[in-house]
Amino acid sequence: MAAPPTIAVFDSGFGGLTVLRELLPLIPGARYLYLGDTARLPYGAKSQTTIARYALSSAAFLLAEGAQMLVVACNTASALALDELQAALPIPVIGVIEPGTQAAAASASRSNSASASVLVLATAATVTSKAYARSCAARGLHAFEKACPLLVPLVEEGWINHPVTAEVVRIYLTEALEVAPDARTLVLGCTHYPLLKPILERTLADLDHPMYIVDSASAAARAASSLVPRISTNEPVSCRFFATDSIEKFSRLGAKFLGRPVDPVTLVDLGE
Amino acid sequence: MAAPPTIAVFDSGFGGLTVLRELLPLIPGARYLYLGDTARLPYGAKSQTTIARYALSSAAFLLAEGAQMLVVACNTASALALDELQAALPIPVIGVIEPGTQAAAASASRSNSASASVLVLATAATVTSKAYARSCAARGLHAFEKACPLLVPLVEEGWINHPVTAEVVRIYLTEALEVAPDARTLVLGCTHYPLLKPILERTLADLDHPMYIVDSASAAARAASSLVPRISTNEPVSCRFFATDSIEKFSRLGAKFLGRPVDPVTLVDLGE
Asked: What share of chain B is helix, strand, coil (3-state, %, to 5)?
């Protein structure tokens, strides 16, 4: 029997724990490392050079901890640093954008819609990077990208099932569907958004505009699992968590993203 | 006639433009420099050592540009780096917290309330620093600090007069007044919040809990003007704007904070 692989998941914060959550049942026998680079977030406003440097130093830490595969569970780092990471690391590196786009393309080809357009909800930084638009265009899809700056703060406030969040989601979706009335596939282009999937589904039903929702977190986890041979094991899941700042917030909010306790979290210093 | 002084205003972003907006009519003859350290924001999650280093490098830049007075229009930097700045700089340095607390103390002493309690709305970082609580305690006031993490994103989304913002403000104020029912003075402990003053006033009226609102931006501007001799001049206001990243967003959103165009903005590199 092959030894269980060590899979590292990296994000600027705890949002990427939604990717780890998807990985756990797909590769139950693996050992997991999770690093949230909380001291240097948000990556969104930083330059490409700086983000690549942050991502490389984070990856070097995870490699030293024994990582045999790296999942970049951060849309900004996937958009701006994936090539550098893949060139620099001797292990497989998977981002969230390509798997998300691939799942969107599969959904669009299944649908009977004449239009090959998808709607991508993301942070302002990810929209500005145009990474989803480029990735979709390479598959013959037209991506309408909608920046939703309030959704991350609402999730971080814990207002997952809250009337205010429902109203904000209704406003964003209404604005987006005015521009992209033909879209039948919705891509969640931020690792915070899977927590809002129920409220998004309800709102789309209220707007009488049902869409197939592609969750980049889930798509990235499936892409990672396709690279790992299936292991049968009775060992309990082994997860080690690292953060570069704000351990308490990481552990407290992270549990909502992971759906289980995030504990203990080790503080690490990766410099500036 | 004295030469017009050069007054520098410093913030991690563009929120501090509300302080500059208050300064312009109070010291009309001055030359103004404004620096938003947008590449390194938010300061809130950083350590005290890092924030002091950021603030000192920002101040050194402004000193080299001719600053003769520095207004630290950033609550986090005022809370964590004011002593270092005052020790290091050969010019007067004014923060936002002391003037805000002083104005709150004046309001509390005017009110007929038996209680000397004030309610401070601020970001999570400022609340965690307990800077307002300490400053209020030194004046015999009890501060109830309420973290309002959604207000900055709502203002940055431009939802100043928006039903969602009204609902969020109602929720935050209701929660805060349950803990501090005697408070009759409300301190706006974040430079983004003056833009929400009308909505706060309406909500307090709806809640049947009128409060005197102390705006730290306005209080800091008055403290600065008290140090400058009155100049009569016919010269137009001279403002120079600097930012360390995201010039376009700085200029676009900054205009809402300043109430006039923020242009041109010069990009400066202060390192990391």
From this structure: 45, 15, 35
Interface with A, mutate which of B48, B168, B247, B253 (most A CBs under 10 A): B168
CA distance A124 to chain B (A): 11
Alpha helices (runs of H) in chain B, residue ranges in sequence order: 17-26, 48-64, 75-88, 97-110, 124-129, 131-137, 151-156, 163-179, 197-206, 216-225, 247-258
Of B95, B178, B182, B91, give the one whose Cα is nearest residue B135: B95
For B6-95+220-267, give the CATH class: alpha beta
Question: Measured between CB atoms, which of A149, A245, A246 is closest to B157?
Answer: A149
Residue A167, chain B, CB below 8 Å: the answer is: yes
The CATH 3.40.50.1860 domain(s) of chain A lie at: 6-96+220-267, 97-217
For strand B31-36 and strand B6-11, is the pairing parallel, antiparallel, or unpaired?
A: parallel
Residue type, B237: V
* Model confidence, pTM: 0.90
Q: What is the structure's pLDDT at B38?
A: 87
Q: Which of B:183-242 have CB within 8 Å of A? A: none
Q: How far apart are CA A184 and CA A119, in angstroms?
A: 8
Indicate if the pLDDT at residue A128 is higher than 70. yes
**pLDDT-based confidence at residue A116 (cuts at 50, 70, 90):** confident
Residues of chain A contacting residue B171, judged by C-beta atoms under 8 Å apart: 164
Express each pLDDT in A47-94 by its tens digit.
Answer: 788 889 999 999 999 999 999 999 999 998 999 999 999 999 999 999
Mean pLDDT (10-residue bins), chain B, 272 residues: 84 93 92 92 76 94 97 93 96 96 90 76 90 94 95 92 97 97 94 95 96 94 91 80 89 92 92 72
Helices (runs of H) and strands (runs of E) counted in chain B: 11, 10
- Say how far apart CA A173 and CA B196 lie, in whole Å: 25
* pLDDT band at residue A272 using 50, 70 and 90 as cut-offs: low
Cβ pair B157:A164 closer than 8 A: no
In angstroms, the CA B75 to CA B44 distance is 9
**B206, β-bridge pairs:** none
Cβ distance A153 to B149 less than 8 Å, yes or no, reads yes
Domain with CATH 3.40.50.1860 in chain B: 6-95+220-267, 97-216
Distance CA B172, CA B207 (A): 12
Fold of domain B97-216:
Rossmann fold (3.40.50)
Cα(first)–Cα(last) distance of chain A, in Å? Answer: 42
For chain B, first and last CA: distance in Å? 42
What phi and psi values does residue A40 have, to the nearest 5 degrees?
Answer: -110, 5
CATH topology of domain A97-217: Rossmann fold (3.40.50)
A259: left (phi over 0), alpha (psi -120 to 50) or beta: left
Beta bridge mates, B122: B147
Name the class of domain A6-96+220-267: alpha beta
* Res. A258 pLDDT band, cuts 50 70 90: very high
